[in-house]
Amino acid sequence: MRVAIAGAGAVGRSIAGELLENGHEVLLVDKNPSSISVERVPQAEWLLADACEITSLDEAALQRCNVVIAATGDDKVNLVVSLLAKTEYGVPRVVARVNNPKNEWLFNEAWGVDVAVSTPRLMSALVEEAVSVGDLVRLLRFSQGDANLVELTLPPDAALVGTRVGDVAWPTDTSLVTIIRGHRVLTPAKDDALEAGDELLFVAAQDREEQLEQLLSVSRTDTAG
């Protein structure tokens, strides 16, 4: 997979390193000469250019990329890069970094963004995820389809404890994608029984989140009553 990353700062270089370790081709683009640190990520391709200019993106051969990541520290730049990548070059997947949470509402399909990653929101979500049991925590927003990656840790008294995955009447537009049980990561099968303390990860439409949380938080005492 070929990936172009706009922004060769600490964030962009870190992403590039991870992708290269996983066997992908990576191009780092930055207009600041001081950011062109080839020795830090020698396996990547480097381009000194303004990623907001069509001529630069032509030089980067963006049409050959499977993914474009807008990872600069400027939200305006990230939006422009995302829009150009999607509309001018038809890049299948565009991921954009959100620096200011107040701008998060802009990072959507209209601006060419498939996945928006807000570092402040993600950090707060991870804190919530670590301490919350029985509450739905939004980890990541997908622009297409208005869906989110959400997590809930199943409380010990949840009515669904012991219920098989295939027997649960999950809300429409939701999908249980992973069960984290202790140190194990499980791909859910219909015969798997849910256990107390399971971390359940769903991709769910935003308007179904409340319904999903209600389903998972119902306790045995509620059903008995």
From TrEMBL:
Residues 1-117 form the RCK N-terminal domain. It comes from the Bacteria. It comes from Streptomyces silvisoli. Residues 137-218 form the RCK C-terminal domain. The lineage of its organism: Bacteria, Bacillati, Actinomycetota, Actinomycetes, Kitasatosporales. InterPro entries: K_uptake_TrkA, NAD(P)-bd_dom_sf, RCK_C, RCK_C_sf, RCK_N, Trk_Ktr_HKT_K-transport. This is Trk system potassium uptake protein TrkA. Keywords: Ion transport, NAD, Potassium, Potassium transport, Transport. Pfam families: TrkA_C, TrkA_N. PANTHER family: POTASSIUM CHANNEL PROTEIN 2-RELATED-RELATED, TRK SYSTEM POTASSIUM UPTAKE PROTEIN TRKA.
